[in-house]
Write a structure and sequence with these properties.
Elements lengths: L18 E5 L4 H12 L3 E6 L2 H14 L4 E6 L5 H14 L5 E4 L17 H22 L5 E5 L22 H26 L4 E5 L7 H4 L4 H10 L7 H4 L1 H8 L8 E4 L9 E3 L4 H4 L1 H15 L10
Parallel strand pairs: 1-2, 1-4, 2-3, 4-5, 5-6, 6-7
Antiparallel strand pairs: 7-8
Helix pairs in contact: 3-4, 4-5, 4-11, 5-11
Length: 311
């Protein structure tokens, strides 16, 4: 993918008949992803914390795409009970799932704990998606060209996982723990690929990051310094949500995308541009870290993966 051959949403294959779950689908990258997939015929389930915001997003989308196949379902990724309820309902009325886009995230709040006692960024951005993926893996195994796309960040390269202080009780910095959650996303996506491959599963795990996109994740957060920095100072460097979503759309749909790949922008510093294959940090690809985070996540969520084998 050279700059002259940059991939665009116009190259998304026909998605008619495919069922896709997008977390955090009512705004930002999730909304852009939903719009593009629905435009190509996909049946998109908007997994959102606030159902009213989800319904407003659907109304806006269907105003421009009257034939869009969309539905709203509540999912609070910070609450593992909500994750299980979402998965149970999907099992009750869906026999398969083709794509899961682990997109939703929170960024740099004051130190807060989830209902189960986990630091809320680690809970929402990583543990909730870990549990959701594990609980839906059988439906994905029954899907066509099934994929899990987990959205990380270039910031994963400047992070470490505080295994000895995951709740930030001893020392908490909002951006430090956001970066930790994005590293956890990267470690999870890579380790999931390794385990799916070892099991001979048809499900593919890919990672993506948007570069720097102007979304409410930065501009609507509770920390004033983050809002100032990302909402004003750095805004000229940002690309639109539609452009930022291209990496995850490529990973979710393009026939040439392969399991284990990390897709990000091709521009300077991976801040903007068309989707291309980029490098994981050595820490994210470390097998021992992957094993340790996986086992910790199983204990924290109570979810163990049953890997579907190829047919």
């Amino acid at each position: 993918m050279t700059p002259q051959q940059r991939w665009t949403s116009e190259q998304i294959p026909d998605q008619t008949g495919r069922v896709i779950v997008v977390t955090g689908a009512n705004s930002g990258l999730g909304l852009a992803t939903t719009r593009a997939l629905a435009r190509r015929g996909g049946h998109v389930i908007l997994a959102v914390r606030d159902e009213e915001k989800g319904r407003r997003a659907v109304a806006d989308l269907t105003a421009g795409q009257p034939d869009a196949r969309l539905e709203v379902r509540r999912l609070d990724l910070a609450d593992l009970d909500s994750v299980r309820s979402f998965a149970d309902r999907l099992h009750a009325d869906r026999g398969r799932l083709d794509v899961l886009v682990n997109n939703a995230g929170v960024m740099a709040p004051p130190r807060t704990l989830s209902p189960q006692g986990h630091e809320v960024q680690f809970a929402s951005n990583h543990l909730g998606h870990f549990a959701l993926t594990g609980l839906l893996l059988d439906l994905l195994g029954a899907g066509s060209d099934p994929r899990v796309v987990t959205v990380s960040s270039a910031n994963h390269r400047k992070a470490r996982i505080h295994f000895d202080d995951l709740t930030g009780e001893r020392r908490y910095t909002p951006m430090g723990f956001y970066n930790q959650s994005k590293l956890a996303n990267a470690v999870f996506g890579h380790e999931l690929h390794r385990r799916l491959t070892a099991a001979g599963s048809p499900v593919r795990s890919l990672l993506a990051h948007p570069g720097y996109a102007a979304t409410g994740l930065q501009t609507e957060g509770p920390v004033a310094l983050v809002k100032l920095l990302f909402g004003r100072v750095l805004t000229p460097l940002a690309q639109s949500p539609d452009r930022g979503a291209l990496s995850q759309l490529y990973a979710a749909t393009d026939p040439s995308a392969r399991g284990g790949e990390f897709i990000g922008p091709d521009g300077m510093g991976e801040l903007r541009g068309g989707p291309t294959r980029v490098e994981l940090s050595a820490g994210a690809a470390d097998a021992a870290t992957g094993q340790r985070l996986w086992e910790l996540s199983e204990r924290a969520t109570g979810v163990r993966f049953a890997f579907p084998a190829s047919v």
